Amino acid sequence: MKTEKKRTIKQEYLIIKRAIKLVNETTPHFTFHCAFFSFCCSLTRVGSNYITASIVDELTGDRRIKFLVIMLSCYLIEILLRIIRDYSWRRVRTFNIIASKWEDMLLNNKSFETDYKNTEDSTVRANRQMITDRAGQSGFNVLMEQLVCFFDGAWLLLLGAGICFGMFFKHSPHELFGAEKFIDSPLMTLVFFIVVAILSVVDYKKITKFSRRIVESQKKRALCQIPLHYYLNDYTDDSKAGKDIHIFNQKRLIRSSVDRFYGEWEKCSKEWFVNMRKNNNAHNIIYLISNSITYLYVALKVYIGAFGLGGFLKYQFCITRITESCTILSRSIAELRANNDYLELFFEYLDMPSEMHYGTIPTEKRSDNIYDIEFHNVSFRYPHSDVYAIKNLSFKFKVGEKVAVVGMNGSGKTTMIKLLCRLYDPTEGYITLNGIDITKYDYEDYLALFSVVFQDFRLFSFSLGENVSCSQEYDEDKVLSCLNIAGMKERVSALPDGLKSVIYKDFDENGIEISGGEAQKIAIARALYKDAPFVILDEPTASLDPLAEYEIYSRFNDMVKNKTAVYISHRLSSCRFCDKIAVFHEGEIIQFGSHEDLLKDTNGKYYELWNAQAQYYKDNATA
């Protein structure tokens, strides 16, 4: 886990400032609405009390009708302020509701734009997971809530202090002596406010202390909730896992794991509740002391005749609001600083630099599909690894050639494809397209040259047509043609909604469940639909039997025609129709040639792999 570092006040401010700026870019004038809403709230609270107190003073004093009418008419202004307040609140509340989804969109947009290597980097993924896990208790919605609280506290403090300032000039009309004279002096008022300020500072320190502990407890709870959520929701809710749960009696393992993590979660929850209780108790005690002092002081001022009953209502209310505002400000500042832990992590993810070079040269759109790609002494190792996955790789893809790539697991086959498609850049050496380093080409243009079916492909819980075309608008005839070539003709014709049939039941109870083999055929149809000059199949037919795999490859070979195609497969029998076969071993190409030529080398790796698989099929045939 990332070690928390102490930030300076300036750093705290800059994080909050950046977050507010980001919010205002998405929702213009959001900060203004927060401040204006809080101002209206504070003004209606303080103003209503001020009007009531003035009316009480007038009724117990001169009873001027004109003044009473003016005061009563001020309530109409208060009604108008409430209407304006409610309008601003709707603006604030609307964005507050969608804030969590907006955060997800920002994170997802960064995931779309960042280098592919970051999506596979365990450190980056851990940081992303930490952001996701803490989003419920932190984030932009917390920022916005605390901004409203901060402005509310600030306005209450200013308005209350403005009214209470008049207490310095309120004196008894009678001649006073001793303690009563001291009570009536401005010095007593100053001492009173100093005591209230000291109590507010103590309250702030207590709130800051316990808020930090509460945040730490929340982090611990979030970490415990990850495995709990996995066992109680993700895994047990997965219909495919149900078979394993019953067959292998995984109930005991799941229950014991849940009990263990629940015990840790319960411990963290108790710690969280204890800190919350201590925080509330400390605040309530200080608040009670402050209010008691306030009531006593204002009552004494009334007792000596400095002001009347209306003044008591007005000043007691405003002083209490000042005390309350100090608490609100203390809490909001403490919460904002605690929330900065999340925002700092969030911004670090957004600021993740791109280390790949994105060129500007557009790729040539050729109707003859003449695109020559060559590896020039290419070596590659993954981030945070000292082991080379590819070493000194040099070979060329010829136009229209069908190349099969074979080798044992971990030999570098898939890594070569990732380098070819520029998901990674070589650690050493370079790759050229028509004689030009591929890093100099426009990245999106270069990617458009490839249709790839990876071994760990994914399908969307969208319609069949959208899965094949990767678009909401598509050529239905072309989609059907690609599905037919991939061997899905009969399955598609049996679907009641045809291409509009939704795959899986995640979002549609009428969605269709498909087998692993059918999913692979849809992925192949998707690669065909893109109609790119380079077609790559990275072991996409692992769920199919050898005959079905060979049938798909044969059809696919007819479809690609003059395109350059690369096939990766563990089943060597499916690669016989390829022009050339590249044999990978420990990150290097150790053999390259046709099937017939490679079999002539009885000491070669290909001969060893071929006979090992052939013997397996012979043994099964004999059995």
Q: Summed up, what is this model?
A:
The chain has 623 residues and is α/β, with parallel strands linked by helices. The protein contains 20 helices and ten strands. Residues 619-623 have low confidence and may be disordered.
Descriptive terms for the model:
623 residues, four-stranded antiparallel sheet, 9% strand, six-stranded mixed sheet, 62% helix, alpha/beta, single chain, disordered C terminus
Characterize the structure shown.
This protein is an alpha/beta fold and 623 residues long. Helices cover 62% and strands 9% of the residues. Strand 9 (580-585) and strand 10 form a beta hairpin. Helix 1 crosses helix 11, helix 2 packs antiparallel against helix 11 (309-350) and helix 3 (65-113) runs antiparallel to helix 6 (140-164). The model is unreliable at 619-623 (pLDDT under 50).
Helical percentage: 55-70%
In the predicted model, the low-confidence regions spanning at least 5 consecutive residues are: 619-623
Largest sheet: 6 strands, mixed
How are the strands of the largest sheet arranged? Answer: 6-7-8-3-9-10
How large a portion of the residues is in β-strands, by DSSP E? Answer: 5-15%
Structural class: alpha/beta
What is the oligomer described by this structure?
A: single chain
The coarse overall form would be elongated
Individual helix count: 20
The succession of helices and strands, N to C, reads HHHHHHHHHHHEEEHEEHEHHHHEHEEEHH
| Average pLDDT over all residues | 82
How far is the N terminus from the C terminus?
Answer: 55 Å
Rg measurement, Å = 36 Å
Give me the count of strands. Answer: 10
